[in-house]
Amino acid sequence: MLGNGFLPSTIARITYTPCHILIKNLEQYFIFGLRTTNLPSAHDSDYKLCKIEKPVTEGLSHRTRDQWEIDRTSLKFVRKLGSGQFGEVWEGLWNNTTSVAIKTLKSGTMDPKDFLAEAQIMKKLRHNKLIQLYAVCTVEEPIYIITELMKHGSLLEYLQAIAGKGRSLKMPVLIDMAAQIAAGMAYLESQNYIHRDLAARNVLVGDNNIVKIADFGLARLIKEDEYEARVGARFPIKWTAPEAANYSKFSIKSDVWSFGILLTELVTYGRIPYPGMTNAEVLTQVEHGYRMPQPPNCDQRLYEIMLECWHKDPMRRPTFETLQWKLEDFYTSDQSDYKEAQAY
């Protein structure tokens, strides 16, 4: 709670003065404090884009902070969220109190050690833009990984569902989602981790358009600037940087390339990248300099960010830290930009 009111879990721009605290929502003002002064105009540039949300949790209970294993009988399966080759994902309850997501491993489909490798990575990575690990059940099969629940599912399905209903999200909301993803990736960057499978299908959506990065099954800690994937490893070609797709050379800069592809998914509401092209055609054309054209209704400045992410030289692609501040300040860089945001 802030002042005499509650701080809404929405996108907000905050500025402080000696006599009041002003929170400027994208559509309206909220004033907290004992007295106020005149409201600033929409041209003021002293706002900081932020997202107000719950703090990062460390586990389901004090007991699981150092001991991740929980009793599987404490879990209740509520509804299936999805299924795949290796198992299922369920919405569930822990101790009938805490909503969780339960990822199960189908017996005999893969080595349990490989399945639990994702949990081992999640234990080390704690950030409010990454899906948080709560616990595991490994004593008997099927093995479970228990994480925080994001009720609206994958970003890809979320965008496609919105488009399917003939609706759309305001451009500032899409830009904010991109900024949130960049923030999570900037944290991975700072920890020397690479994701290797960054795409809208691997980002989850919660209430108020909160998004978090998930699916760390391919993530790796890199001790050098580059990671060479094992022979025979398979990757989603249309999201993968050319040096990674052709030579299995992965780095945080190959994740930056994938982020540029993810930006096209955002503004096209989940359209498959390189429409009408096969994987083989994409590999050949991209190697020869082809880049996707500017999507319809895509801001020119956002397209320029995409092109920066797709630079042939990995070292000339921006860092995720740079991408984060560019996207967070997308509508506050000058007066005309802010007017554009209000027009949507």
TrEMBL record:
Single GO MF annotation: ATP binding
Catalytic activity: L-tyrosyl-[protein] + ATP = O-phospho-L-tyrosyl-[protein] + ADP + H(+)
InterPro entries in the record: Kinase-like_dom_sf, Non-receptor_tyrosine_kinases, Prot_kinase_dom, Protein_kinase_ATP_BS, Ser-Thr/Tyr_kinase_cat_dom, Tyr_kinase_AS, Tyr_kinase_cat_dom
UniProt domain Protein kinase: residue ranges: 75-331
Keywords: ATP-binding, Kinase, Lipoprotein, Myristate, Nucleotide-binding, Phosphoprotein, SH2 domain, SH3 domain, Transferase, Tyrosine-protein kinase
EC number: 2.7.10.2
GO process annotations (BP): actin cytoskeleton organization; cell development; morphogenesis of an epithelium; open tracheal system development; salivary gland morphogenesis
SMART domains referenced in this protein's UniProt entry, alphabetically: TyrKc (SM00219)
Domain of life (superkingdom): Eukaryota
Protein's name in the database: non-specific protein-tyrosine kinase
Enzyme type, top EC level: transferase
Pfam family name, one: PK_Tyr_Ser-Thr
Gene3D superfamilies: Phosphorylase Kinase, domain 1, Transferase(Phosphotransferase) domain 1
Biological source species: Glossina pallidipes (Tsetse fly)
The UniProt record lists the keyword Lipoprotein: yes
Residues annotated to bind ATP: 103
